[in-house]
Amino acid sequence: MTPHPDPQAGAAVKAADRAHVFHSWSAQGLIDPLAVAGAEGSYFWDYDGNRYLDFTSGLVYTNIGYQHPKVVAAIQEQAGKLATFAPAFAVEARSEAARLIAERTPGDLDKIFFTNGGAEAVENAIRMARLHTGRPKVLSAYRSYHGGTATAINVTGDPRRWANDNGTAGVVHFWGPFLYRSPFYSETEEQECARALQHLEDTIAFEGPATIAAIILETIPGTAGIMTPPPGYLAGVREICDRYGIVFVLDEVMAGFGRTGKWFAADHFDVVPDLLTFAKGVNSGYVPLGGVAISGAIAETFATRPYPGGLTYSGHPLACAAAVATINVMAEEKVVDQAAHTGETVLGPGLRELAERHPSVGEVRGTGVFWALDLVRDLQTREPLVPYNATGAANAPMAAFAAACKKNGLWPFVNMNRTHAVPPCNITEAEAKEGLAALDAALSVADEHVA
Q1: What is the pLDDT of residue 150?
Q2: Checking DSSP bridges between strand 36-40 and strand 43-46, what pairing results, if any?
Q3: What is the reported pLDDT for 127?
Q4: 158, exposed or middle or buried, with CB in 10 Å at 0-12, 13-18, 19+?
Q5: Which residues in 277-298 are b (16+ Cβ under 10 Å) and which e?
Q6: Is-contact 335 329, C-beta < 8 A?
Q7: What is residue 3's predicted lDDT score, i.e. its pLDDT?
Q8: Contact 246/240 with Cβ under 8 angstroms?
Q9: pLDDT tops 90 at residue 2
Q10: Residues 312/58, Cβ–Cβ less than 8 Å
Q11: Enclosing H/E stretch for 159
Q12: pLDDT tens digit string along 109-137?
């Protein structure tokens, strides 16, 4: 679709937004949100006719791109047939969505509790784990993000937790493996894995194994930096959980539904959690939907004991119809295979080639269409291009990099000293190369800040 400029309409949209919309994670007087006129596939555009290749997939959720006609049609059809219905009833769209999800989850994660998004999925997974075990504590990694609701933000590790951390949520954080910035002074992936597992064991010992309900990990951490765990790490966590009777929760809200080149990132590691949270890519974000996939043992806990949790819009028919259509599109169009192929043949090689030519790129990490560039001031010391959680003038190098991306028609995902390449799973080879070219130009701006 070709954008048709209409600055007057854009000004009206912007004025209403600034007058009435309260934006998340923002100082309201310091933001200048772009007024978006439309989107299709891997692109969106503003009212001035500027078109952007979206290397963020919204918030890493438009896994099949914007406005896929089959999903739009499914939503329209469901709206005409049964636009909404209470969650206590059996509804075709809800039942079919649950069946299709359960077919793809690893192991015996065959029961699906639907939520409205990822944070609520994490919230309920932790509640299930605590009720199943009768224990209060949850362990999670410092480099993580699990959502913005009360419990989810407390298990989150990144700085968005700080202002919301009440210190009484029964959450203990630990260091996960990350060789490039190893907290364990490791020199190899094998050392990092062994030392990270020992650190987790020590944390459990000092907290008291009998007090710990769950360990929750993003299978591959997303916003925190897309750090693929070393071989053996997740299997090691699984073994630790089994030994101490701890529920193992994998958060696949961002990594799931094709993003890593598998239906779920857990499939890369041959590990089955007790609970798996999902959202985002389950229906490409067209209608809010998330959920928890539940193992047989935990489902049995609530066979005759009521589960004390629920949501008015759990398994909303429009959201579930979108999920059914999205999963079917992904299967029919081989979107998961396409994500894997794009990562192996275009994004991975292309990003590594950029790293060879740009001294601001310290490390390239990722798989599928889930990549991060760690930007640095010094390749030897690995000093980040900007300080941790930088704002204002301290964040100027990253702000300049982001502005250069947008100038070249690329909308970037930027967090701290990193830029993430997370386009739709069905991005074409030509579009991916277009994005790499825009990154190439913008990284020249980042290079100017290298020591």
Answers
A1: 84
A2: antiparallel
A3: 97
A4: buried
A5: bbbbbbbbbbbbbbbbbbbeeb
A6: yes
A7: 75
A8: yes
A9: no
A10: no
A11: none
A12: 999 999 999 999 999 999 999 999 999 99
Indicate the pairing of strand 43-46 with strand 51-54. antiparallel
pLDDT of the residue at 207: 96
Question: What is the rounded distance in angstroms from the CA atom of residue 192 to the CA atom of residue 190?
Answer: 5
Q: Evaluate the CA torsion angle 31, 36, 41, 42 in order and state its sign.
A: negative
Q: With beta carbons less than 8 A apart as the criterion, state whether 41 and 335 touch.
A: no
**pLDDT at residue 43 above 70?**
yes
- Is residue 206's pLDDT more than 90? yes
Which string of DSSP letters, residue by residue, matches 244-256?
HTPEEEEE-TTTT
Amino acid identity of 123?
E
Q: Tokens 């309900």 label which residue?
A: 213
Question: Token digits for 317?
Answer: 């028919």
Mean pLDDT computed over every residue of the chain: 96
- Residues 193 and 17: their CA atoms lie apart, in Å, by 47
Helix (H) / strand (E) element for 332: namely helix 317-332
According to DSSP, the residues that pair with 290 across neighbouring strands are 115
83 DSSP 8-state letter: S
pTM metric for this prediction:
0.96
Q: Helix, strand or coil for residue 67?
A: coil
Q: Whole-angstrom Cα distance, residue 435 to residue 449?
A: 22
Q: Are 290 and 114 in contact (CB under 8 A)?
A: yes
pLDDT band at 151 (very low <50, low <70, confident <90, very high): confident
Instruction: Indicate whether 169 pLDDT > 80.
Output: no
Between CA 192 and CA 300 the distance in angstroms is 37
Instruction: State how far the Cα of 320 lies from the Cα of 414, in Å rounded to an integer.
Output: 31
Contact 230, 176 (CB under 8 A): no
Q: Which two tokens stand for residue 202?
A: 């020590």
